[in-house]
Every structure is written in structure tokens, then in C-alpha cells.
Amino acid sequence: MSFRTNARGSRISSQREIFPRTERILQFGTGRFLRAFADCFIDEAINAGHYEGLIVMVASTPSGRVELFKKQNERYTLWTRGYAENKSIDEFRAVTAISRVLAANEDWGKVLTIARSADLEVILSNTTEIGLSLQEGDTLASPKSYPGRLCALLFARADFFDYAPSKGVVILPCELIDNNGDLLRSLIIEQAHRWELGTRFLDWVQHSNLICNSLVDRIVPGLPGKAELDAAYEHLGYIDELLTVCEPYRIWAIQGDEILRSRLGFAEGADGIVIAPDIAPYRTRKIRLLNGTHTLSVPVGLLAGCQTVLDNMNHPTVSSFIESLLRHEIGPVLPVDPDTVNPYIDEVLQRWRNPYMYHRLIDITLQSTTKLRHRVVPTLLDHYARYPDGPTPERMALGFAAWLRFMRGTSQSNGIVHGELKDQLYPIHDDHAERFFDWWPTDDKMIPEFVEDVLSSDNLWGMRLSDLPGFANAVTINLRMILSHGIESALSGTETQ
Fold it and tell me: What is the spatial distance between Cα 292 and Cα 275, in angstroms, rounded to a whole number?
């Protein structure tokens, strides 16, 4: 194993240098994706002399990361592994763009102080798809939802600066939802109405702030196995409990114009940041081909005994299913330039075959029901719009069936529903887990009615998927096959399609 360390040095220092910089960015989320993505771009811009702002992170939920960051003086190591331009990359860099880390619940007063700072320029977030929603009973004094918190801090800022247009900020949501900026803006406005914050504030939110649609793309898996991890720590000379692994590929497409570009100092000369008036093609390709295929294929892989994305790609029938899903069902119905589809698919498949990426399938199942709605259902609808008389999208139906089998809970402990595969329990981290725990029939003869009920749920899909010709029947056939004969038998059926 050969490592390279960025010239900035390999150690997490016990003392922070004195930076002549100010806190310009407020970031909601401390997870590994933002650490490997937005924070990496900003850190590189700082070191290139293009930007002078630091990041204040806000932990939205208790996770222990606040204390870890304090322990490591707000630093962490980024480990980039993979291939770029036919060259192998295996590099470390110490990221020092974080000023401090706060906990939303305990440090809300400090967050509001930052909201009233003249230096604040940008607000970032990655709260997952489920995070872009309001909570009933949220209060202005102690908001719990991310849109509620953002509304409260924007109100504090507007009030402090007497609604000065120049004190608006750029807001960049990084959640993987179509038109995430538009959605976030609508949620802020709805929350402001609920709190009766007045038309002056609503005016200021909409006309003084840039709330941008954005698309993020970089694979950020978990840590490798113990032997590789120990070798990395030996090379570094320290143990970093926030060590973050990522692939070389990255793109951040942000919808905006030259005004936005002038306000994002860290975007200057950044390799991988695209600012364009229309980012829909970037978003559609990424969310449907990469994320949508992940969402459909991960339960298939788990049922086949795979543990990682690389396992999926090395499994003959699972990898064949994945490539066929991409090329024959998702790709042909994408509303983008068709000449861009197959090259992007080739790139996605190459990224998934990256031998350095230890991307656990169980981690990708987080909130899989919501992910299906946002990442897969639009493709399903486009398929039926393109082919109203058939054929039925059998691979998507198999993905839905595998997801239903994954959602079959067998026990509950400590508030978590667990499923079971080959006598091994696994957690179902999904807001609908308890519903499915009660929903799954005790008699497999009731599978057709169960599938019909699930696909008919407006609450899950925003429409009745059971009305799509042949789809419920295809899901039922696949689910019965999985339950009776296993995933391999179901997969062999799709190979003839």
C-alpha cells in the first residue's frame, strides 16, 4: 500500500494556528459527506488564497461529533482514494477550515449570535431528504426542524439589521432532492406564516437572500477494514476519529448567475464547482442514475449476501442487474440529452468498481422509503409516459420487491426495528419502519393485497403507483419469488427481459 500526504502536513496539531480569518459560513450538518465535499472545496480555496472565511458547523442531532471535533481542535483528515485520469490516487490532507462546532439544541443562542454577524455570507446544509420538512409544534424560540431553525435565524438576522437588503445570505442546501432550494424556500415561507412573522420578513427572505438549487455528487463511504485502517494510522502517525474517506470524483452544480458567482468566493477556480442558470440535467442524471440505481439495487445486493457496493459490482448476477437497470430502464427515459447518458453510466460503473471504496450497503438503506419516492418514482412515471402500452419495467419492479423484503421487520429493540437475513439481524433505519413492521402480513398468501396497499399509499408516494399498468403484479411476482426461492431466482428472471 502506497500513501501520499498533502504538502500541508500529515498531523492533527495539538494547537490551532491563529488564523486572520472570520467565520463566514454556517453549516448545518457535521457528517462525513459535507466533510468530504463542501468543506473540502472551502478548505482548498482558503489554502489557494481565494477565500478567507471559516466554517461554523452545527450538529443538528446528538451524535458525539461535537466532542470529537473539540478533541481534535476542529480538524480532521480527508483520505482520497481511487482513479482519476487513469492515475491511482491514495492521498491524505488535513482539513482546517472549521472554526468551531456547535450543538443545535444546547448552543442555539450561539447560533443566533452568528446569524447576527455582519461577516456571515453562506449557509450550507445536508440534513438528508427527510430533513427538508416542517415539524408540527415548532416554536420560534426553540425550533427543531431544519427549515424551522433556518427561518428563526433568518428572522433574527433580518430584525438585527433592520431588514437591510445587503445583509441577505447565500443558502446552499445539499440534500438530494429535485429543486432543493425551491423546496427549502417554500418551507421557510410556510414556517414564517405559521409564526406570523409578517410581510416585511417574507419580502426580505425572498428578495434579499439567494436560496439556490444545487446538486452534489461524490461517493463518501465508510472506513476500510482494520488492516488498511491501521496502516493508514501508522502512516499518519496519529489516530483520527473523524477520518473521512472519499473518491477523487466530485461535482457541485449550483443554479445561479454571475451575481451568485461573485458572492461565492470559495468557488473561484474550483475544480468541480459548476455555476449555471439551469442545473436540471446534472441533477437528473445524478439522482436517477447514481442514487436511484443505488436505492433499487442495494436491497437486491443485501439479499444476495453482498455487504458493500464493490461486492455488488463483483457479484455476477447483481452487477448484471445493475448495468441492465441503468442501460435498459433508467437511462432510456431520462429527460436529458441522450448523448450524455451512456458516458455518464460508464463513469458511474467505473466509480462503483473503485477497489478503495468501502461503501456499506446497509448505510445506503437509510430512509430508503423516502429515497424511493424522490429518486425512483419520477423515473417510473417517465417510463410509463414513454411506454404507455408496455413493457413493464421488470428491473424496477424487482428493486421494489427487494426493498419490501428488506423492510420486513421481525423484532424491535431500543426503538429500532430489525429485519433478519440468514439468521443475522440488521437495523431498518427508516421513518416508516414501524408502519411496515405492523403492515407486513403474517400469511404470505396475503402478499398481493399487501403490495397493492403499499403501492396505493398516497402518503408514501404522493400518488397511487398501483394504477401503473402491470407494475403491482410485477412487484408481487418478484416478491413471491424472493420469499419462496431467493433473490437469485428473481434475478435470473430479469436477465431474460
Answer: 24
How far apart (Å, rounded) are the C-alpha atoms in residues 332 and 342? 9
Number of residues that make up the chain = 497
Q: What is the pTM of this model?
A: 0.77
DSSP line for 17-65: ---S-EEEEEEE--SHHHHHTHHHHHHHHHHTTS--EEEEEEESS--SH
Dist CA 157 CA 36 (whole Å): 29
Strand partners, 308: 360
Q: Would you say 165 and 207 are in contact if contact means Cβ atoms under 8 Å apart? A: yes
pLDDT above 60 (res 14): no
Give the percent of the chain with pLDDT over 70. Answer: 95
Which of the four pLDDT bands, split at 50, 70 and 90, describes residue 83? confident
Q: Which residues pair with 203 in a beta bridge?
A: none
195: Cβ contacts below 8 Å, ≥ 6 apart: 140, 151, 155
Q: 395-410 pLDDT, tens per residue?
A: 999 999 999 999 999 9
Query: pLDDT category, 60, cuts 50, 70, 90?
Result: confident
In Å, the largest CA–CA distance within the chain is 69
Q: How far is CA 481 from CA 405, 421, 487, in A?
A: 11, 16, 7
